[in-house]
Amino acid sequence: MTLPKTMKAMLLDTPRTPLRPAEIPVPTPGPRQALLKVRACGVCHTDLHIVDGELTEPKLPLVLGHQIVGTVAAAGEGSGRFRTGERVGVPWLGSTDGTCPACVRGQENLCDHPIFTGYHVDGGFAEYAVADERFCFPLPETYSDAEAAPLLCAGLIGYRTYRMAGEGVEKLGIYGFGAAAHIVAQIAKFEGKKVYAFTRPGDREAQAFALRHGADWAGDSTAPPPQLLDAALIFAPVGALVVEALKAVRKGGAVVCGGIHMSDIPSFPYSLLWEERLVRSVANLTRRDGGEFLALAPRVPVRTEVTTFALAEVNTALDRLRSGQLTGAAVVVIESELEK
Ligand SMILES: [Zn+2]
Ligand SMILES: [Zn+2]
């Protein structure tokens, strides 16, 4: 296959502006990198936080997108983990320094010098992308490209959030029932838990979606659940939900925030935290999370519900995610004109 010199991409020039269609050079893979022909790339809340200027250190101009499903088109110097044509996934954690105290402790998700895909380096809203092959994942064959894409962030970080709820959880609450929640709910059911889904007040469509994906109960985020929960996961970027979730968990229960950004958490009485309730965040992912989750997903089997968009429609996908008009996961599917 001869590689083209240029490719279509959607570029963020500056925060708070729409992505712009552009023709840019196909990137060259460096040492330990693979060049991937992008087949699909999931759209995530984190992309919105970057576009909206809430995450403040993006490379500019930037190709967003950190749930990349692609096939290996070329290898850089010293690369060879994957063969040409092999399908791999690229997550948010693009690479780490491997030497900082966090990395040495085995917490590469907390690396002092991380490189995040579609933030510090270009991501997958383009026809080609380069990625550090050591941080790519082989993907289960049972998933189509579009179905596999949401596994790479919604699934992976959702899974890490779920594990952080701790042992002995039987009744699990999930606040914000989008891409991550619909994957986590299936795993929780597989592991025998009862799932309580909380949505924006009055959002009957999201509540029906939650019930379709295994939730035992669905209701408004401002209303109490029928029973106290052992733990609650928060996937919506709304700080007030921390307070609502604390009201809903039992003594010793955990509230785990799975997003990279949230609005401010309102002050609340200490009595809500008292009795060893715990509030914690989850940051990024480790390759170990990825290995565990991608082995588990086909055994459940996790089914992802996706709405697909063409590359030129990324702005529409972002707008619909921002306004809560999406059920499940938004995925950009690349229809390359270059090989036809
Ligand atoms: Zn993400
Ligand atoms: Zn590090």
Protein topology:
Layout: E1 6-11, E2 20-25, E3 33-43, H1 45-51, E4 68-75, E5 87-90, E6 93-95, H2 101-104, E7 115-116, E8 128-132, E9 137-138, H3 145-148, H4 154-163, E10 171-175, H5 179-190, E11 194-199, H6 204-212, E12 217-220, E13 229-234, H7 240-248, E14 249-257, E15 278-281, H8 287-296, E16 306-310, H9 314-322, E17 329-333
Parallel strand pairs: 10-11, 10-13, 11-12, 13-14, 14-15, 16-17
Antiparallel strand pairs: 1-2, 3-4, 3-8, 3-17, 4-5, 5-9, 6-7
Helix pairs in contact: 4-5, 4-8
The structure holds zinc ion (2 copies).
One zinc ion (ZN) binds next to loops.
Share of helix among residues?
10-25%
CATH class of the largest domain: Alpha Beta
Category from helices, strands and their pairing: alpha/beta
Tally of alpha and pi helices: 9
Short synopsis of the structure:
The chain is an alpha/beta fold and 340 residues long. 22% of the residues lie in helices and 27% in strands.
Description:
It is a single chain. Strands 3, 4, 5, 8, 9, 16 and 17 form a 7-stranded mixed beta sheet that branches. The chain has a 6-stranded parallel beta sheet with strand order 12-11-10-13-14-15, with helices on both faces. Helix 5 (179-190) links the parallel strand 10 (171-175) and strand 11 (194-199). Helix 4 (154-163) crosses helix 5 (179-190). The protein folds into 2 domains: 6-151 and 285-333, Medium-chain alcohol dehydrogenases, catalytic domain (Quinone Oxidoreductase, Chain A, domain 1); 165-281, Rossmann fold (3-Layer(aba) Sandwich). Helices cover 22% and strands 27% of the residues. It is globular, with a radius of gyration of 20 Å. With 340 residues, the chain is of the alpha/beta class. It has helices at 45-51, 101-104, 145-148, 154-163, 179-190, 204-212, 240-248, 287-296, 314-322, and strands at 6-11, 20-25, 33-43, 68-75, 87-90, 93-95, 115-116, 128-132, 137-138, 171-175, 194-199, 217-220, 229-234, 249-257, 278-281, 306-310, 329-333. Bound molecules: zinc ion (2 copies). One zinc ion binds at residues 96-97, 100, 102-103, 111-113.
